[in-house]
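Anyone else keep sequences and structure tokens together like this?

Example one:
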Amino acid sequence: MKNKKKLLSIGELSKLTGVGIKSLRYYERINVLKPAHVSPETGYRYYTLDQTRLVEMIMFCIAMDLPLSEMAKFTDADGIMDIREFFKKCRFAAEVKLKLLQKGLSLLDIVEHEMDLAEQHKIGQIYTRDLPAQIFHTMPCGDSLQEANFFEMLTSSWDNIPYAEDDYGMYEYGTLWQDNMYSIFIEVPEKTENTIITPAGRYHCIQNEESQIENAAEIFKEHISGKFLAIETEIFTSRQNVTKPINELRVIPSTAGLLP
């Protein structure tokens, strides 16, 4: 038996690591944290100082959403743990988690930018925005939106877009109109089949609580003459009814060009 003076009681280990005693006992039951010594007289558990690092590894597993059963797979019946292989597993989990966090931060930036823009204008007020070219995957609806099932068409299209599972929410979606034809679109990061490129330039815009793309010609009659491209997409505002999002309608002359 090791010198008890060099061992930590379960209470001391709990204080050093910030992990509750009940949790430490649970880790023992699932074979990821065996005590260095168990007193045969009292049943008290004792741990080495090095085992505080093992507790930190357990907490890392939890933070990375790794089941603790995964950690147990790297420890044999004698308590010998294959640290290198376990670290490979942890690194992979951390990289996946980091990617999700980076995506989340990017999405927050996009939403905050939308809210800043929305707050600069009142509902029903026409304003201008300089927008970059965008790549849209499109699904034609014909000359009317009345019979188009927007959300059914939108969700079914995700299966045909490679990035969708990882990047859902990072790109715009909505309705597009040009040459008397409507399409539902999803913005994509690169050109593929059934994509178009919208022109970069200065767009006339307006925010509405209801879809107004079918009334675009009337709304922008003093700003756009002749053929034009209309794009309508949902945007975030600082305070809004979550069941009734705000739409931004944008138009630009067709002479700016749609690239197939």
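And example two:
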Amino acid sequence: MGDKKEDRFLKRGIEDSLVTDFAEAHRNSYGDFLQLKTLLNLQKTFQDPAQPDEMLFIIIHQVSELWLKLMHHQLVEVRRFLQQDEFGPAMKNLDRIKAIQRQLITAWETLLTMTPADYMTFRQALGSSSGFQSYGYRQIEFILGNKDASTLKVHEHDPEVMEMLNAALTKPSLYDEVLHMLARQGFDVPQDLLDRDYAQPYSGDPRVVRIWVQVFCNTEKYWDLYALAEKLMDVESLFQRWRFDHVTAVERVIGNQPGTGGSSGVSFLRKALDLRFFHDLYDVRTELMYSGQE
């Protein structure tokens, strides 16, 4: 009996083949590869001594910025694959984007373990900082089609960020590339839409909606386009869910107080819920309903 009890506390140890000597210059450790000393020292609290929930607030937002960076990277990849009419890789990357979005949505659950009383212990230390100032988020909105040059005003103090965002503003959005792809697939996409100013938002066009009606009414022939349209709608739906959870999280913590960045707070965030990226893909549903009643 004594031997059996002792066995339960045996240590795993390490195998002889495991690399343990990282003194040699050509060997990179896990910490080296991920630059952990840099990464894990970026969490600077606002006050001295720090309030208990400052670390939670910082890490949640830093991790979210990393997910946003990866999401933008994948969106750029999707745009590139669409330019090359490569449906398979585009679909694969859209699935990854959806998985990233779910990670971003889940983050709100962790943040909401912070109560209003917790937040008020360090809110003043945030100064005028606000999530609206996230240029990572702005890049995603631009590539998804919400082109609004007025949002660049909060970045005018940073020439490097302004250069990056101005470039993103004038590039074709993801849906712009979908329009070009439809044209290459033989559909009659109006030339004025293909040659438009990409710095302006695209708000949908009934001529394109009619193209999507053809696709949705003949899914076997246009399966790739049909599947692409639905994956884009998945991305939009998850984005809206993230926005909605953001609004409800903020309302639960600060109520109707103004935002730290000078906005009206919750009422300002709610306006984003009316924004859409893929207008034609919403409108085609209405057209399909009407055509089904004829």
